[in-house]
Design brief:
187 residues, alpha/beta, Rossmann fold, five-stranded parallel β-sheet, 10 helices, 5 strands, globular
Length: 187
């Protein structure tokens, strides 16, 4: 059965690392919008360069741009056949509503990987990405609280939100995630 999973959490919560492991364990396609946008920026495409300017300033890429990119990716055969895990999308209620509109009942689980702010700031500074300046990190976390945090209420209202403690070792967090995903999808 094809399943749709969304992984949410503050930047630096470990979503990307854990999403790869979940993808491998459950046979779903890991779709990272951040990776897709960074690749487009590295390729120097018009959209990629526009997205890079926005991301470097610590802002979110506009809904119409990111919705189109994600919808196109979800229509590919691998995501249709085996299911998907979205990492970095949706980030706003409007994006969640758009996603729900084009995947319908396939969206069965939204995981909030919950990590304290101080811990995510330290993690992001350690990873050393070009767009991880202190100013950009602070801006992204502020935007997360304002724009993305309301998603938790939206997914809760949809009855598909699962909050997972993202603190501790990578393995301990992964075990908690496997338990959450196993409630809706067998390994």
């Amino acid at each position: 059965m094809s399943i749709g999973i969304v992984i949410l959490g503050r930047q630096g919560a470990g979503k990307g690392t854990q999403a790869v492991r979940i993808s491998e364990t459950f046979g779903v396609v890991h779709i990272s919008t951040g990776d897709m946008l960074r690749a487009a920026a590295a390729e120097g495409t018009e959209l990629g360069l526009e997205a890079k300017l926005i991301m470097d300033a610590g802002n979110l890429v506009p809904d119409d741009v990111i919705n189109g990119i994600v919808k196109e990716r979800l229509l590919k055969q691998d995501a249709q056949r085996g299911g998907f895990l979205l990492d970095g999308f949706p980030r706003t209620v409007g994006q969640a509503e758009a996603l729900s509109g084009y995947v319908g009942g396939k969206l069965q689980l939204a995981i909030n990987l919950d990590v304290p702010i101080g811990e995510v700031i330290a993690r992001m500074l350690e990873r050393g990405r070009d767009d991880d300046t202190t100013e950009a990190i602070t801006r992204r976390l502020e935007l997360y609280e304002v724009k993305t945090a309301p998603l938790l209420d939206w997914f809760s209202d949809e009855g598909i939100l699962e909050v997972v403690d993202g603190s501790g070792t990578e393995e301990a967090v992964f075990e908690r995630l496997v338990s959450a995903v196993s409630k809706v999808h067998a390994v």
